[in-house]
Structures are given as C-alpha cells and as structure tokens.
Specification:
It is a single chain. This protein has a domain of 205 residues: MetI-like (MetI-like fold, Orthogonal Bundle). The protein has a two-stranded antiparallel ribbon. The longest helix has 37 residues. It is mainly α. The chain has 13 helices and two strands.
Amino acid sequence: MSGSIRASVIARLRRTPPSRWLALGVLALVVLAAATASLIAPHPPLRQIIAQRLQPPGTRSAVRAADGAVGTAAGAASAVHAFGTDQLGRDILSRILHGGRISLLVALAAVLLSGTMGTLFGLVAGYAGGLTDRVVMRVAEVQLAFPFILLVVSIVAVLGPGTRNVVLALGISGWVAYAKLVRAQVLTLRELPFVEAARAVGAGAGRIMFRQILPNTLSPVVVLASFSVAQMIILESALSFLGLGVQPPTPTWGGMLADSRGYLATAWWLATFPGAVLMATVLAINILGDWLRDLLDPTMRI
C-alpha cells in the first residue's frame, strides 16, 4: 500500500463517527457470544428447575442439576442467573446466547439464498432482455403485490415450521430486491466498451455475464445484503413469536418474547433482556450497513 493510499485510509477512519465503532463492537460481541455459546453459557439452555422459576436477575442457583455433563458450567451448584430465569426455571442468559446462534445462522442462510437467487435472475434478465426480462420482472411484480411478512407466513404455513423451512421461506420471499437491483446495474453495464470488447473477441454470453458484468454489480449487492441480515433477524423472530419459526424447545429470541407475554407485569426480565439484545443487534447491523454503503459507493465519500 502506497503512502498516499495509507494516509487516505487513515484519514477516513479518523472521520468515522464513534457510533459506527460502537456498532462494530456490539456486533462483534454478539457474534462471538453466539459462536461460543456452548462454552460460555453458565447453564444448559434447556435445563428446567421448577424450584428456580421466575427468579429475578442476579439470583444465585441453589439447586445442583443432575445433567451437569451438558454445558461447561452446568453442574455448578452456586452459578448465578445473571438475567434471571423463566417460567420453567431455565436460565435467560444461556437461552439468549444459544438463541443468538439460531437467529444469526437463519438470517445469514436466508440472505445467502435470496441474494444468490436474485442476483442470478437479475443478471440473466438484464443481459438477455426481451421475453426473458419481461417474464422475470412480471414474476417479481406479482410477488411484490403481496405484503412481505404475509408472503413469508404463507410459505411457512405451506412448508411447515422448522429451521430449514424458515430459511427457505425467507430466501424465496427476499430475492426480488436483489433481482431488480442487479438488473438495473446490468442494463447499464452491458452497453459499456469493455463488454463490447469482450463480444468482439468472441466471448460467449455466459463468460460475459459472470466474468465481466457480475463482478461490477457486487458492491451494491453486498450493501443490500448487509441491511437484509437485520431484516431477516427480525422476520425470524417474528415467525418464532407467532409459533411458525424454529420450534420449542430450541431457544430463539422471538420464542423467548412469545413465552414472556403472560409475565410482563410480574417478571419484566423475561421480555426485557431478549428484546434489548434483539434491538441492539439489529441496530448495530443497520449502522454497519450504512457504513459499508459509504465505503463501497464512491458518490457517498466526502
């Protein structure tokens, strides 16, 4: 890296608002906690101790579990329930940590599926034009006519609840935005001189699309995907809240919020901590998505 480029990068990093660094730290902490949930969770997420039900945050467990082999600190008789326990005596913190793993994996898998589908459809439609373009765009417009959450719920209702079906429903419902974005990029790129030069030397349509055009459309796709991760986390939580997502007893943030509905007046921690983690994660991803857009879009740089 030359000195001028290094100086430019350092200057841009210094101008970065503190909120973006904070968001990066929050997201890194959430990802790290979810990835190491099995190691750092103080209790097994499925362990029920009815004698310890609805204990407030900071309560020290006085019951030694018989299944202490599950989890790292599961057998500790004096382990603290930092976030309290739920209506079945399960540790809230442990369930949040394991639920974050589910939410992040479902969101990333759904974004990967919808982004791949949409990018391919938009690439083919924009380059081929004609009947292919019209068919793809009419299908996209028909799908856009349905409210997004209603479409997701309908697909899940047909496929049935479960992690795999939730990923499929979210992926199938989200491809349109990528297709329209990539198609708009391709309509401009296919007329540029470097594409004409590729045609002149005898390059086929497949080579031109995937070797010449596709790399030049990835920057806006990456930005859109970063924002979509936050949307998918919210949708997965909403489906779990409605009982159509990942099924109990697997912990999810939406499922924990659903379980807390009957205890809002008597056990505030059941909804507060999962809701706060969900809000902080989504907010951090949106802030970082905005940062990523500024980095990848030259017109946004100052």
